UniProtKB/TrEMBL annotation:
<dbReference type="InterPro" id="IPR029057">
    <property type="entry name" value="PRTase-like"/>
</dbReference>
<dbReference type="InterPro" id="IPR000836">
    <property type="entry name" value="PRTase_dom"/>
</dbReference>
<dbReference type="InterPro" id="IPR051910">
    <property type="entry name" value="ComF/GntX_DNA_util-trans"/>
</dbReference>
<feature type="domain" description="Double zinc ribbon">
    <location>
        <begin position="5"/>
        <end position="70"/>
    </location>
</feature>
<protein>
    <submittedName>
        <fullName>Competence protein ComFC</fullName>
    </submittedName>
</protein>
<comment type="similarity">
    <text>Belongs to the ComF/GntX family.</text>
</comment>
<dbReference type="Pfam" id="PF18912">
    <property type="entry name" value="DZR_2"/>
</dbReference>
<dbReference type="Pfam" id="PF00156">
    <property type="entry name" value="Pribosyltran"/>
</dbReference>
<feature type="domain" description="Phosphoribosyltransferase">
    <location>
        <begin position="145"/>
        <end position="235"/>
    </location>
</feature>
<dbReference type="InterPro" id="IPR044005">
    <property type="entry name" value="DZR_2"/>
</dbReference>
Length: 236
């Protein structure tokens, strides 16, 4: 089948076998060159945050966890809030450009470039019984961007999505120090009763320091969720 690559816009021929057709396999929206340019997180990873150990200095590894996760777990305020995070891609130069086009230049359709890998990796690590909770944008950011990238990712999974978090801190987390990120709760919870005893997975585009998903996880735990994990497109 012929098509145009969603990223480079070059015309390409999609290679699909008879078995692909019989199993109704989705045609790839990327050419082979662009598809191979994505760097999947593979190999030995941190048990907690899913970061690839191959990208870290050996001194940054503490057993089966990275030093960042060990610090979260040694803090009584945050220990046990998040069971684990898993991510799909490495945040390399290629991914930075793709995310810039998707989020900051408003190219919503690019979410389709992630569908195959996102679905495969999510169901490798999480149950289809999970409830999905996307990280929200502030009203100002949603107006500027036109869509919530976390919600767009959650919609790829065809599982129940619960918009129970509301962002009330509009300042970007990346502009704050670690101390400020830990002390400033960016979310509030509404309609949390439906989470009692449930296993939930927070959905976001990128895991950097972990502060965003840890703040969300604490609210969800307080609302009665029995297990809280997170799944992100990228692990920086």
């Amino acid at each position: 089948m012929n098509g145009y690559c969603l990223l480079c816009h070059r015309r390409y021929v999609s290679r699909m076998s008879w078995s692909d057709l019989l199993t109704v396999k989705q045609e790839d929206v990327l050419c082979d060159v662009c598809r191979r340019s994505f760097s999947l997180i593979e190999g030995d990873i941190c048990d907690r945050c899913g970061r690839s150990f191959s990208l870290l200095d050996e001194t940054y590894r503490q057993g089966e966890c990275c030093a960042d996760c060990l610090r979260w777990q040694q803090d009584d305020e945050w220990s046990g809030m998040l069971t684990k995070n898993r991510s799909v891609y490495v945040y390399d130069d290629f991914m930075k450009e793709v995310v810039s086009r998707w989020k900051f230049r408003g190219d919503y359709a690019l979410v389709e470039a992630f569908r195959i890998d996102v679905r495969r990796e999510f169901f490798r690590h999480f149950s289809s019984e999970s409830l999905l909770i996307p990280i929200p944008l502030s009203r100002e950011r949603l107006y500027e961007r036109g869509f919530n990238q976390a919600k767009a990712l959650a919609d790829l999974l065809f599982l129940p999505v619960f918009d129970v978090l509301e962002r009330h801190d509009s300042e970007k987390q990346s502009k704050k120090s670690r101390y400020e990120r830990l002390r400033t709760a960016p979310f509030r919870l509404h309609a949390g009763g439906q989470l009692q005893g449930k296993s939930v997975v927070i959905i976001d585009d990128i895991y950097t320091t972990g502060s965003t998903v840890y703040h969300a996880a604490r609210l969800l735990k307080e609302a009665g969720a029995c297990d809280v994990c997170s799944f992100t497109l990228i692990r920086a």
